[in-house]
Amino acid sequence: MSQAFFALEISSDGVRACRFSREGRQGTRLREMVLRPPEEDKPVEAQALAALEALGADKGPVHVCLPAWDFMIRNMTLPFKGTGRISQILPMEMGAGLGVSPDSCEIAFLETKKSATGTGVLALALEKGRAEGLIQTLGEAGYFVEALAVSQLAAASALAAMDKTEGAWGLVDTRGALVLMSGSRALGLRVFPGVDQGEDRLAGTVSTVLSEICGLRYPEITLDKLRIMGPCADALALTLESRLGIPAQGLNPADSEGPDPERVLAGDAGGVCAVFASWAAIRGKAAPRFRERGWRVDHFFASHGKALIGSGVLTLLVLVLLGAHLVLDMQRLRRQDRMLDAEIRRVFTATLPDVTRIVDPLHQMRIHLAELEQASAFAASGSADHRMVELLRGLVRSAPEGAPMHFTRLAITGDQLTLSGETDTYNHVDALKNRLSAQPFFSGVTITQATADQEEGRVRFNLRSDLR
Description:
The chain has 468 residues and is of the alpha+beta class. It has helices at 44-53, 83-98, 128-140, 151-163, 199-217, 233-244, 271-282, 296-351, 361-398, 426-437; strands at residues 3-11, 14-22, 28-36, 62-66, 72-78, 105-114, 119-127, 145-150, 168-173, 177-182, 185-191, 223-229, 248-250, 289-290, 406-413, 416-423, 442-453, 458-467. It folds into two domains: 3-294, 2-Layer Sandwich (Nucleotidyltransferase, domain 5); 397-467, 2-Layer Sandwich (Alpha-Beta Plaits), CATH 3.30.70. The chain has ten helices and 18 strands. The model is unreliable at 377-382 (pLDDT under 50).
C-alpha cells in the first residue's frame, strides 16, 4: 500500500508542488510535479495552495523548501562552545542583520568546526512573516506544514545520503547558490547571481566563491568533486572541470537511485533542486529544519478540522438532549412527589380524623398504627390465654376414664385444632372422638388417621376439629 507525501518549493522561477509516494521496497519516489510560473498579481500563498491543489490528491502534511537567497546566511566563529549558548546569541546577531527584533526571526544553525577557542557555525535566519502567512493559508486548507528547509542544503543532504559521499565536495545550483560539504555535513553556503548572467560569468563567480570559502575559511580541505544542478548544469560542469581541475558532473534525478526514476522532471532543469530537496525533507534527511516540532496543534486541526466540527456539533446536540431529558424528568418527579404527598395526607386524614395538626403525615401515621397494634395485642393476649386454658381443660375431660391416653402433639391453626396421640385400642380412639364432640368448644371432630403398632401394642391416632 502506497503512502503519499507532499513538498513545496517557492523560488524566483515559480512554485513547484511535488507528490511523492512510498511503496514497499521501492522507496520514496516522485510521482507528480506541478510548476506554476510567478504571478505578480497573486499572493505567493495563493499560488502555493493552487499548486498543491493541482496535484489532485488527498490532503496531508507538506514540507516547504525555500531557496537559500530567501535567508540571511552567515558563516561565523563564536568564542564559546555549547548549543545552548549559541541558540541564545544567534537571534540577537541575526536579528540585527535583518533589522528586526530577535523574536521576529526564525534561526537555525549547523556546527561546522570546533576548536579550543570557539565554535564555527553556519547560521541562517528567516523573518517569521516570510513563512507565517503561507503556513496559515495551507493549514486552513488542510495542508499541515511539518517543517521549513533550505532547498540547496536539503538537496545536498539528499545527495550525500544517496551517494554515501565521503570527503569534501561541493554542490552548485546554477540558479545562484553553492554548498560546501564534508561528507554529509554542510560547511558553508554562498548565494550569488545565477545563470541569467551568462555561463562564463557564472563559472567565474563559482570559481571565485570556491577560492574564497576553501582558501580562507577551510584551507585544510581539498575538494574531491563538484555536483551541478539546475539549468545549463552539464555545460557548467564541463567549464568548471576545465578551469578548476576538479571532477564536475551534472545531476540527473532519474538515476536508478534517484528520486525520479519515472522522469517526471523531464524538461524542467530548474526543478532538480526542488525534487532533491523535497526528497530529503520527506525522508528526514534535510538539515537544518526550521521549526521542525512546531505547529502540532495546527496540524491536528488542519488534518481533522471537519471531523472535529461534526463531532462537536453532534456532542453539543447530545448534551442539549440530555439536559432537556434531565429537566423533564425532574419536573415529572416533582409532580409525582406532590401527588404522593397529597395521597398520604388524604389517607392520614381518613384514618386518623382526630389528628388536626399534620406535620409529617407518614411518620405520624406510623406512630399511631404502632400504638394501635400494641394496644390490640395487649387486649388480645389476655383472652387468648383464657381460651387456651378452656381448650386444654376440655381435652383432659374428654379422655376416656381408665384408658391409657398419651397426647403427643397439639396444634391450633386459626379456628382448627389438630391432636395427635397414642392409646391401646381403637375403641378408646372412638370414645375420645365422641367425648370431644360433646364439648362446647369443639365441632366436626373427625379421626384423620388411626394405625396399630403390633410390636408395641399401641394405636396411634390423629384427630381434627373445628373450634367454636
